[in-house]
Amino acid sequence: MKNLGTILGAIAIVALIPLYIGQFSGKSDKADSSSSKAGSVTEAGKIAYVNFDTLVQNYKLYEELNKQFMDKRDKAAKQLETRGQSLERELVSFQRRAQANLLSQNEFNTLQRDLANKQQQYQDYQQTVSTGLLEEERDLNQKLYNNILEYLKKYNADNKFDIIFNYREGESIWLAQDALNITQVILDGLNSEYDTTKTEGDTKTEESK
After folding, report:
1. Looking at the domain assignment, is residue 117 inside a domain?
2. Can you list the positions of beta strands (E) in 11-140?
3. How many CA atoms lie less than 13 Å away from 170 in the CB half-sphere?
4. pLDDT tens column, 159-188
C-alpha cells in the first residue's frame, strides 16, 4: 500500500499547503479599540500603522478570496481522494487474485505494469494539484496585497504620512502608540470600496441578462 501512496498521503499534500490567507486567526486587537479616526495621529511624527491581522479578519475582499481558495482546495482534495480510492481498489483486487493463483504469469506482469503506470500518473496528478494550489494561493495573496496597497496610496495622498507601518503583534514593532493606529479608517475605506465595486459588478451582470 505504501508503494502506491495512500489517500491520507494525498490529502496531506493538500493540507500541508500553508494557506497564508487562512493563517490570520483570532489575534488580540488591543491596539485597535482606542482609535477610530486618523485625526488622532500626531502631525509631528507623520507616522501611522495598520494592524494587518485586524484588517484581513474584517476585510470583505479577504473573505471572498479566502472562500474561493477554500472551495478550490476542497474540490482538489475530493478529486485526489476519489482517484486514490480507485487505485487502492485496483491494488487490492490485484493482490487477491495473485494470492489465489488466478493470474497467469503474463497477466500478472501486465497488471503489475499497469498498476505501476497508474501509480505514477496519480503521483503526477497529486503534484500538479499541489503546485496549482500554491500558485492560486500566491495569486490571491498578491491580489489582496495590491488592493490594500493601492487604497493606502489613495488614502495617503490627502493625509501625507511619511510612513504607514504594517503592524502585527509581536513582529517587527514591539510597541506602538494607540494614537498612531489608523486600522479602522483603512478598513472602513476598503470595505466601502469593495461594496461599491461589487454593487457595480452586480448591476452590470443584471443588465447583461
Report:
1. yes
2. 47-51
3. 4
4. 678 889 888 877 777 677 788 889 999 999
